[in-house]
Amino acid sequence: MLERATTSPNLTDRGRIPAVLRVLTELVAWVTLPWGLAHYSIAWSILAVIVLIGAPGVFATPGDKKQVTVAVPGPVTIGFMLLQLAGALWGAILIMPGWAVAIVGVLAVITVIAELPRWRWLLTAPARPLTQRPPNTAA
Question: What's the pTM value of the predicted model, to 2 decimals?
Answer without folding.
Answer: 0.81
